[in-house]
Predict the 3D structure of the following.
Amino acid sequence: MAALVFTLATLLVVLFQLCLAIGLPWGAASMGGKFPGKYPSKMRWVAILNAIVLLVLIMIVVIRAGLVFPELLFYSSIAIWVVVLFALVGTILNSITPSKIERIWAPVALIQLISSAMVAFS
């Protein structure tokens, strides 16, 4: 169940990143609000890279939860802690960002942190 919660929360963030990449004017809710409105071209590529990284994190969590690729379970026992650390940093950064609207991501990051930690400790 924790892997599913992590996956759904993270897919929400992936969708947001892809929206930034295609030019939706939601930049104030990301990167500390440094790029309000539409992201510039370079940052759109960063949003795509962010989405890819997040999809890799999902794969690590579902592998560790034993849902796919059981042959990679051993490697996921280490990689899951990278996911937990990523979620911890995300929770902190989204909580202290100068962009008030970006703080909406703090609860999502906290859900990612709790659910990834549950998978890590299981």
The CA atoms of residues 32 and 99 lie 5 Å apart.
